[in-house]
Amino acid sequence: MTSRMRRDEQVSATREALLGAAERLFAEHGVHAVANRQISEAAGQGNNAAVSYHFGTKIDLVRAIARRHAEGIEAGRLRMLADIGDSADLRDWVACAVRPVTEHVEALGAPSWYGRFIAQVTADPALRAVTTEEFAAASPSVQKLQEGLNRCLPDLPAEVHAERTAMTRHLVTQMVAERERALADGEPTFRASWREAANGLIDAVAALWQAPVTREG
Q: How many CB atoms are closer than 10 A to CB 84?
């Protein structure tokens, strides 16, 4: 192995350690409560400037964490979309919004921090914009998902469709974060497995999409 290859491996390992440490600390304490120095220490790096050297700003670091997960979730959703084809069953399309996330978090093992990390950053207006950009860039499947929901609910007004899309996103994010936190803390969970948790989410989200639309008279 050449010295250049060893150097590249060391850089890659350092970046992964910093990403993992940052994700955990951000999930547990919030992005703005964590200093770069704390991330470096948690990653076993003696250089307090390691985060700035490898990623630049804290926002760039948040973007890198989001990107490393967005690609895996997107791959899972694309597989599910290929399986359901042109299904007319609303639950199939709702499952494509839910299961790629729950299956990704389950694959991370316990404890994991992704659910809590996303819950933290999406609550912050500036950071939410960053993560939304990353998921949009990695997610050509979202348009197909929206088209499938539209076909199942052709009479749903566009503004209500957009509202329920946001509701779906928040419900999935918060329930995944809640289950992840309970597993990490050894507390009871509502469902015995991630698959069952996804079933519960799909039930609720499908009902949400089919709820009546109240019009002010």
A: 15
DSSP run (H or E) holding 51: helix 50-55
How far is residue 186's CA from residue 202's CA, in Å, rounded to a whole number?
Answer: 25
**Are the beta carbons of 17 and 44 closer than 8 angstroms?**
yes
Compute the residue count for the chain.
217
Tell me the whole-structure pTM to 2 decimals.
0.89
Q: Mean pLDDT of residues grouped by 10 in the chain (217 residues)?
A: 67 90 95 93 86 90 91 93 96 97 96 94 84 69 92 96 94 96 95 98 98 87
Name which of 173, 164, 187, 162 is nearest 101 in CA terms: 173
Burial class (CB in 10 A: 0-12, 13-18, 19+), 59: middle
Q: Tell me how far apart the alpha carbons of residues 98 and 108 are, in angstroms, rounded to a whole number.
A: 16
Closest CA to 183 of 115, 97, 99, 103: 115
Spatial CB neighbours of 72, under 8 Å, sequence gap ≥ 6: 104, 107
